[in-house]
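From the shared-data thread, chain only:
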Amino acid sequence: MSIDEQIDKFLAAPAFGVAGASDDRHKYGHKVYVCYLQHEHKAYPINPNVKTVLGNTAYATVRALPEPIESLSIITPPNVTEQVVNDAIAAGVKNIWMQPGAESRSAIKTATEAGLNVISGGPCLLVVMGYRER
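Structure, as tokens:
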């Protein structure tokens, strides 16, 4: 599957999770979450350290989300990404997009071996979708 096909499959999901979402406007987790909202996608912030992001309930893990998701953006340090990937697999996520800086070989291998569509080491969702600074 080409990278464009992988991205199309990822973006076709009805709802998205954003692991690493935050209210800090300077962090990429914030920008990715905002980007989904700017494009009118249903997105859930995932961050065990906060109660809300932009006034929306934040969830501690993928499994804590109020509905299953197919696609998950990961914007966390690589050692955290590994746990997020394990949680995503357990929750039935089908597509993972590790934003630049979030990747780890172990997480990529685990997700790929579990049969997930894994996007890593390439384009940033903010560029592909077209993020607008607010």
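The mean pLDDT is 94.
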